[in-house]
Amino acid sequence: xxxxxxxxxxxxxxxxxxxxxxxxxxxxxxxxxxxxxxxxxxxxxxxxxxxxxxxxxxxxxxxxxxxxxxxxxxxxxxxxxxxxxxxxxxxxxxxxxxxxxxxxxxxxxxxxxxxxxxxxxxxxxxxxxxxxxxxxxxxxxxxxxxxxxxxxxxxxxxxxxxxxxxxxxxxxxxxxxxxxxxxxxxxxxxx
Length: 191
What we know:
Layout: H1 37-40, H2 43-71, H3 86-90, H4 94-100, H5 103-121, H6 153-182
Helix pairs in contact: 2-6
């Protein structure tokens, strides 16, 4: 399980010579910066932009899976609160299900996110300084499940690129789900 607040953890060698050295530049688009941000901001700001992209990607991947699970009608057994069951929420559209969550539940979710974000911002060294610290501690990707050898070099870059690309696709997917729920018929493949 990956907590969305874990920032993009760059190694001490990650203070790149150029932004083109960062993970996430992949075919078919390659390097994409039409507004020219990378030429006008500091390397620390570029790391912050990448951390924000990764955080939004992870949230979008969780949201996409949650939207699909809710759409299939799968749910936890029991009650969310004394008057709201998980089953009743699974029968609603995802946006309506969020509206049906009691206010105390929404406040708990938002409060937990606020605590995680606050803790992440006070980590030393900060991720915009290319630090290796993260909270909670990030598990180093492994070559396979049974190997304790951490990924490095090309293997690590490949895994980082996969996560970024999957996250970008999830963000596009969530935009499609959101638009389809607001404007019926706007996304032809979604009912």
